[in-house]
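Lab meeting notes turned into a lecture example. A postdoc, R.K., suggested we walk through two folding results consecutively so the class can see how the record format repeats. The first protein's sequence and structure tokens come next.
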Amino acid sequence: MSDHSSRAESMLVKLQNLDDLLTLAGEVIITSSNLDLTYKNLQQLHLKAEPVPREAVDAAKDLAGASAIISSNLHHLVQVIRTVDLRDLSFRARRLVRDVSRKTGKRILFEVEGEDTTVDKTIVEKLYDPISHQLRNAIDHGVELPAERSAAGKPEEGRILLRVYNSENETFVEIEDDGAGIDMEKLRAKGLAMGLVQPNEPWTEDEALELMCTAGVSTAGQVSEVSGRGVGMDVVREQITNIGGTVSFKSERGKGAVFTFRVPLVSAVNIMDGLVVRSGPYFFAFPISNVVTTMSVGRKQIHTTLQKGEMVKYLDHLLPLHDLNYLLEKERLTDEGAVVSVLVIEHKGVSVALKISEFYSPQKLVIISFNDALSVNGLSGATILGGRKLGFIMDVPSLIDRAMGRRGMRSAKKMAESAKAAAGRSEKATASAQAAVKADEKGKSAEVHESADVITDEKREETATAMQEFIVEVEKLLPTLNGAIFSLESQPDNVEELNKAFRLYHTIKGNFIMMGLTKGGTTIHGVESVLDRLRSKKLDMSPEVMDVLMDGAAYIEDVVRQSKAGSWKDESGETIIERTARILPEEKTGPRAAVDVASGEIRFSHEAAYRVIQYKKLKTPIYHCFIEFDPGKQPSFLVACLIYKRFMEVGDVLGSLPWLEELEKGSAENRIRIQFASNLDAALLEESLKGILTKHYGAQVFKFSRFE
């Protein structure tokens, strides 16, 4: 069993969409059955050399039409199922803006438009990093300080707008601010100084963006903690480009700037709308989104220049005309008449014309992607056309790069990726060979180990399935939790939202515990304790308290994200624990010097008390141990600290008398009592501890008992 199965991605799906999917699947089966019957009837007529009746032709036509409609609806529904709204992303963006604005001392009115917009889930997950970087930049470098804004006649509070909306095939993400805007002349001067801009070149926003997206280019006076994190516009554009998108911006000095990300509406590319063409003996399919037009051009309309070769006129512009076959390093097309079929394609504002042999109708195509071993520059995959003909899916960006003479970078990247994949396969093959040799050497014992491994894999798969169920449940609760927290920011006395947030944190904490994330549960318990004190009016809402609530939600999101990726380790949220410790009052323990170590009560911290409850639920044994020792020439507190650390090696120490902080301050006699939890065998534990403490730490009295 591969590791991939245990890290399978999951998402929440509306039940109605699944019902519709099931209905469409049934219709596909029915249509397929009818098509099969029609085929058999037509085949019988063909074998008998009888004429095909009109009814049979009409039936085949109707079935073909029905099949096309159903497959289109099925494809659309699968796309809808893959989409999610942007509420979670907007909550994360709000937390980010709140945090950054406080660090920079800038007042920000942050607004989100279009958080109900649905976007492919895979794309949403890849949008947050570039969006967060642009938000940081907008606050740090765009919006001015309150005094500067006031002097410029602006409101002291800056405004940042995150707007998301869909067109027919694309999602637009706009990040707009009313700050100082981009200093185009300062940016140009930077480019001139670095030799990246020529003095006589035109200077437009497109050129400015190219310069901003060059690694190492920045007009910031100094690197700040907020936006100077090693992620520049070059990385942002690369992230957007990797999901098939583009970046653009508009800026007006003194009034602000708006950055726009254009990304595909859906990232699933196993089915596409394509225009099929023939070029000589080969068939190629171009994504409809990259097709500008098709033309039939007389040979006299083709212009030939010394520098650019053949050119063809389109909308008052001359476009370079390339033989598609020759561009793909095949034989040139032969002259097939006085009229030439021309296809015009475009990517990122660059258009080229291609000379082909014949056009076919646009159609939906199932893409068969090339694997790592087969990487052909200019092609992204293959497809099966009508009549079982093989067609090739065009990689338009690579093809245009070829046409414009920009082959090096993209080809080198693909070669590097292929080499990396090949190296990976080689390593796997080597590892398999080594494993085979070892198995042969070990003989039957290897078979026993193999059986044990199979059992382990089965258990891991069961555990992974259970973990996934808990994670899906937590993911389902997150939007409601985020909504409750942001409601409390504007309405801190809203009892309903307080109770809702408390219940949600409590439920999520329980899921973490069931997943075995004890430290995660402990972290969330601190946030839950803060909410409990808010509910009981023992604590007032403050910026520090709101930080804890928001940090808790962010921590949960990280757990969900990393658990789904199979990379989460049970780690405490140290910042959250520190903040809750500052907010929650210390336990009132009275004068500790008067406490009798032998009989006094061990009082637990909030965290330890929570762990005690969880250990009882899990039926993990909790023990008491009382030790009197002779420190000899060593200070008593030092020996007591060493004993305390010995117990930490065999279990989870929940508390002690004297308290740990007193031991560390040097306050201790020759006695210590420790309460701890451990899954080790009780008899073995008692015997081992007694022997070690007597031999190394001068233990004279050792009392060991189980706490009920």
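The second example is placed directly after the first for contrast:
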Amino acid sequence: MSNPLDIFVFNLFSTLATYLMFGLFTVGASLIIFKVAYFNIVLSAYKSFLSSTNN
């Protein structure tokens, strides 16, 4: 019915799709973490800047 080449190509494509989805998920999660960390750094710097100008 199906030759081994078709099965090999199907397995290869499914593995590539899995790696691609995992890579996109990892990149998205790291971008969210980076945005949150960057926002916290900017917020703390802004607070220290405000406290230094008030005193």
